[in-house]
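Why does residue order matter? Because the sequence determines the fold. Keep that principle in mind as you read this record.
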Amino acid sequence: MRLGIEEKRTLVSRYHTGEYAAEICADAGVARSTFYIWLKAYITITIAAAHTVSQQEFNKIKQKIQKLKQKVDILQKVNCTTSAPLQEKLQELAKLYGQYSVHALCEALCVSQGTFYNHIFRRKEVTAYDKRRAEMKEHIKMAFDESHQRFGANRIVAVLSARGISASPKYVRELMQEMGLQSITQYSKRDYQKEMRLVKKQNVLQRKFQANEPNRVWVSDVTCFKINDQYLYVCAILDLFSRKVVAYRVSPKNSTYLITSTFRQAYQNRNAPQSLIFHSDQGARYTSQTFRKLLRMNKVVHSFSAPGQPHDNAVMESFFSYMKREEIYRTQYKSKRQFAKSIDNYIEFYNTQRPHSTLNYKTPDQFEAAYESKKNPAD
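Structure:
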């Protein structure tokens, strides 16, 4: 009769409560030698209140702890981490060869034992093999950099072949791993998504559409208009202090370049202002890595409207509404050039001639001129 673990533990418990082994074995129909093996395997040890483990489980825990201690010891002695290039990890582990088991060394830095043994057997041989390997790494690095880190092993093999250099994808892949080279196509999307999750899309502005001086808060948005089956996009940036359009651009594409080039134009026009807040919606172009990097480089705080809340950027919404009703909807455009010229004329009119109710019916230019006059009165 084959007994289960719980049944074996029950028999062992009877022995620990005072029953004789002979009586237990006779009742269960098992050999006494077998029963004594069970005594060692299923002895219970109290490790916490109301919690016990068998001797077998306890031994496994001890072994696991010993392995972890050994792993920590190895990691404390090496001068690299598990994410370091393979060659660097191999060199560090080779220093500890003989002090620990190969299994422990390889497990600590996530290196295959076969790769480690190959390194150990070859590390004392400085031969033509090593020289060719070093030269091949140079060729691979050059091809990799020329592709702007886009190419993986297969494409690099094709590039090298065109240059008269023969190598297998497996060999190139191995050398790339040693050098820590990895095609951006494998992780660019992952890194982008990770970075997007880390973006703090805070609404710093909180619908406070007033500023005490120029170049403290800029707001921006993009609108589009269809002409002859083609959409044209207008990106504009307004200064909340004077409601002045400090930069704008017209483009057939709603691209990140449209946003960044408009910001650069504004930043140059306004003499690189400091302590600036830039408010926009959470569109893909405004949250792009390129644009956010541009703002960080210029120490600009980025404020975002909440999703589906156009009133968070009401000043820009209002500006585009006026521009469409007062200019765009009144004209039948025949070309992109005509449309762009119309936008030029309207924004010039808006900044210099159109009184604004928020500015006590001064134009944006008049309002800024009055501020400068008050700030710097004539002697």
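The domain at 217-375 is CATH 3.30.420.10 (Nucleotidyltransferase; domain 5).
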